[in-house]
Amino acid sequence: MGTVGLKSVQKSFGDTTIVEQLDLDFPDGSFTVLVGPSGCGKSTTLRMIAGLESVSGGTITINGKDVTHLEPRDRNIAMVFQNYALYPHLTVLENIAFPLRATKIPREAARQRAQEIADSLGLGHLTHRKPKELSGGQQQRVAIGRAIIREPAVFLFDEPLSNLDAKLRVETRSELLAIQRRLGVTSIYVTHDQEEAMTLSDRMVVMREGKIAQVGTPSEVYSSPTNVFVATFVGSPKMNILPGVLEDSTFTIESGHSWSLPHAHAGSVFVGLRPEDLLLVPDDRGHAVIEQIELLGPRAVVALRLSGVKLVSVVEAAELASLAVGKAVTVTFRPESTHLFDGDTEERVPTQVLQREG
Amino acid sequence: MLLPLLAVSGVAVGLPLAYAFYLSLTNFSLTQQGPAGFVGVDNYQGSLTNEGLWSAIGTTATYVVIAVTLETILGLLIALSLQKQKWARDITRSMLLAPMFITPIAVGLTFRFLLNDQLGAIPYLLDGVGISYDFLGTGNALLTLALIDVWQWTPFMVLLLLAGLESIPKQPMEAARVDGAGALYIFRRITLPLLVPILSVAILLRSLDALKVFEYVYATTRGGPGTETETIQYFTYQTGIQFFRLGEASSMAFILLAIVLPLIIILFRRLDRAK
Amino acid sequence: MSSRTLMSALRGAFLISALAAVLFPLTWVTLASFKTPQQLNDPSLIVFQPSLINWSYVFEAGILQAAGRSAFVAGITVLISAIVGSAAAYVISTYKAGGSATRFGILAAQVLPPAVLVFPFLTLAYVLRVNDTLIPLIFAHLSFVLPVVTWFLIGFFDSVPRSLEEQARVDGFTRFKAFLLVVLPQVYPGLGAAVIFGFTLSWNDMFYGLILTPSKSAILPVAIAGFNTFRGVELGSMSAAILVAVVPVVIASFFIQKRLVQGISGGAVKY
């Protein structure tokens, strides 16, 4: 069992507040990712859960027990750091078995257990090596093995994949997920990489400047971002954001171009369109010009300029036949795929398509 | 966890320091029978007007300037050469660094006899080329002692400067070479400026150490000829131990401390910045 | 000859002369220790029949006991310094305990002229009636060895990543256990160098030794100075005594060179 609860948790240094009044619940067995740009407070939050950082306000509970003022060792957690923090002077086996030295479990039993875990992670033949003799991926697995051996209530991960090269990162990601599913331990994972967050999490917590911007499943966050920040943070290439005015179901941007957008809302808005929802129609009298085409195998990223506004669209490779750099196109979109945000608050405006008569 | 350090330091340094200050305000003398009388700043007044003390300060200052300058230049040259050396590196370095680990009295005594005109090898060799030089005679003694200091402590400079040379980034120099700059130019305009932090730390450390010079004087000239080689530490030793005037000697030591303190502060700032 | 080879040759010649300058006095002393008083009168004598007369004299005169006392004082000083110093260096490095004032104090204590502290040590020794033991000397040596060892170690502790200690705390250990089992082992090489360096500093001291110990139980450097008697030259015995003091330390120095710089500069330069 491993539920974690944060109530009004706050972290401040003097006048600066790093984390503001956070309320968050982590159900047993869930894999939650805290994601956001540098400085958003995600690492600080994780470290407060771990007990490595003191809490300025609020309470943290693990399995219902108030751990807010407990030392890390009394919280029944395990943590994997970005640089793995493997003990350089110990062998792989000793590293994995190390946490058990703080318990009453006899040395021999601990070593045996460590060997089992090492085997299960594909490290069985490396147990006598020292960390510096291992590759990055192997070191990471040792760190995970060391975390597993304590059978903790919660796993905490602080950007553990950032030090791996891109390909290794993707491989290790799926391994990590498999391990978590197998063990069923509640996991809280911090990263700045939104792609990682999307692929790993059951639930994503997007953070910004010490506050939660949105909580939800990856698909919720992707398809219904609650504000402009989340909309542009999640998804690659970034969502196109067009500032303009919506009136009488017509959306007009600064340059004067307009589109039909059936919606009851009126006022200044931001219209968000994912690159894949931006449709390009070759048109000699089109209002946009293609500036760059990047082929990515089955798809291509097309960069356009519409009267000074930069737009990005993603098209299927097959459609490239009719497109070329310098060509003019007309940009359209389906109204259902727009994301509407209030021009002042940048908050999502619920999509209500105008009722049709009859 | 800091407590033990503070406790031990308190006893080993703090207490004596405080007591020394107290002593400096008394007319304590080891030969005295009764308790020490409080004389306030009399000692300081006496010391500050003591010609012997100022002469000692001057002598020591000259000594430090000569010795440290030579050590810096020589040290730099040796460090530069060692850096480029390809063969027998570790052995050479170990041997070149050996002098700084020898107890200074041994060094002083060794040179006392090496330079002795009857028994020493150096006058013998110089005699072979027709040079006769009275190393520890009038006018030469202080220089000779400074040279002994150079023999023993240049390795210290070499150690620090070598480390400094090996830790400065190589790219600026490589870029300059690609751009066609000559070796001397690279050294003057790139290497040297990059070395300034460690260079200043080394010079300060060595100077603070050099002004404590005692053993060489004790081994060779005992302050002579006349008072030519009376350094501060030796002068204070004489006042306190040979003449038993502890109160006075303490006041002299504190005057020395006052002179030295600004140097220590500068060193501290430099070290902080170098990090 | 290209300028490259010329430079190389010059460098080589320069280093060889430096080596010669270093080895010359040391060789001379070594040779002198094996010469009889008559042989010593001739400074040009290089090939000769060696004699052990000086060596037996110094051993009889108690040089080994003096060396033993030096080792004892140095050993205790270094032991205390290692324990107290590593704990202090750790908290100073990790938690910046004591702030700049402490670090400044540590630096100042190392470079303080001994003239300042020696008189109170002497007086206090008389007052506490320990003036004919080695205790005042140990305290005097502590006054500079402890700061040096601490200063040394701060630099080494600085290079241990914080996450190592945090990992140990998460893994189930108290801060102290984390320090002992995980952080301290990382600085063992530095600790070794600090201990050897501290030992050398204590072993080499003559100023405090001269003033604070009774002449009957002198420490080694003072004993060496003792051969410089009014009788004039006891050159041979003195040379033997010098070698007794010098050889162990120079050998030890070979082992610590690599770590020495990091220690001396307090971590400012990583070697």
CATH class of the largest domain in chain A: Alpha Beta
- One letter per element, helices H and strands E, the order of chain C comes to HHHHHHHHHHHHH
Described by its quaternary structure, the protein is heterotrimer
Beginning-to-end CA distance, first to last residue of chain C: 35 Å
- The CATH architecture category of chain C equals Orthogonal Bundle
Residue share in helix of chain A:
10-25%
Corresponding CATH superfamily of the largest domain in chain A: P-loop containing nucleotide triphosphate hydrolases
Mean pLDDT of chain C: 84
Strand content of chain C: under 5%
**Could you tell me the number of beta strands of chain A?**
20
In which order are the strands of the major sheet of chain A placed? 6-7-8-3-9-10
Number of helical segments of chain A? 8
| CATH level 1 name of chain C | Mainly Alpha
Give the tally of structural domains of chain A: 2
Name the poorly predicted regions of chain A: none
Q: How many angstroms does the end-to-end distance of chain A come to?
A: 54 Å
Helices and strands in order:
The complex is a heterotrimer of chains A (358), B (275) and C (271).
Chain A: E1 4-13, E2 16-26, E3 31-35, H1 42-50, E4 57-62, E5 65-66, E6 77-80, H2 92-97, H3 107-120, H4 136-148, E7 154-158, H5 166-183, E8 186-191, H6 194-200, E9 203-208, E10 211-216, H7 218-223, H8 228-233, E11 240-247, E12 250-253, E13 258-260, E14 267-273, E15 279-282, E16 288-296, E17 299-306, E18 309-316, E19 328-332, E20 339-342
Chain B: H1 3-24, H2 42-48, H3 51-84, H4 89-97, H5 104-114, H6 121-128, H7 141-167, H8 171-178, H9 183-210, H10 215-219, H11 232-242, H12 246-274
Helix pairs in contact in B: 1-12, 2-12, 3-7, 3-9, 7-9, 8-9, 9-12, 11-12
Chain C: H1 3-33, H2 37-40, H3 53-60, H4 63-95, H5 99-111, H6 114-127, H7 135-158, H8 162-170, H9 175-186, H10 188-204, H11 207-212, H12 220-226, H13 235-264
Helix pairs in contact in C: 1-13, 3-13, 4-7, 4-10, 4-12, 5-7, 6-7, 7-10, 7-13, 8-9, 10-13, 12-13
